[in-house]
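Box 3.1 A note on notation
Throughout this textbook, protein chains are presented in two layers. The first layer is the amino acid sequence; the second is a C-alpha cell string describing backbone geometry. Keep the layers aligned when reading.
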Amino acid sequence: MEKIFEQGLLYDFYGELLTDHQQKIYEDAVFQDMSLGEIAEEAGISRQGVHDLIKRCDKILCDYEAKLHLVQRFGEARQTVNEILRLTGEALQKEAGNGQVEDRLLQIQELGSRLLGEL
C-alpha cells in the first residue's frame, strides 16, 4: 500500500511531465489497478512492454523528485503548518480571557487552516 501511495504522490507532482501515452498506461496500472494483460490488450502492446513502461515511469518520477524535492518540501510544509496549528491551540488555552491575544491566535489558526487546505 505504501508503494501505491508514493507512486500516486509522485504522479500528482510530476505526472504532467510524462508523455500522454506514459500517463495513460501509468494511470491504468496505478490508479485503475488494471492488470498488465488488460493494459496491454487495451494499448495494443505486449505485457512486457507495459511492465517496462511502468518501471520506466517510476524511475522518471523518482528522478524528478531526486532533483526537485517537491514532494519532500510539500511534506515539510504540511508538518510546519500542523505545528503552527498545534502551538496556536496551546496558546489559546493559556490566553483564555485575553481577547486581543485570542483574536490574533484565532487569525493565525484560520490562516494555517486555509494554507493546509490548499496544500
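The radius of gyration is 21 Å. The CA atoms of residues 66 and 72 lie 9 Å apart.
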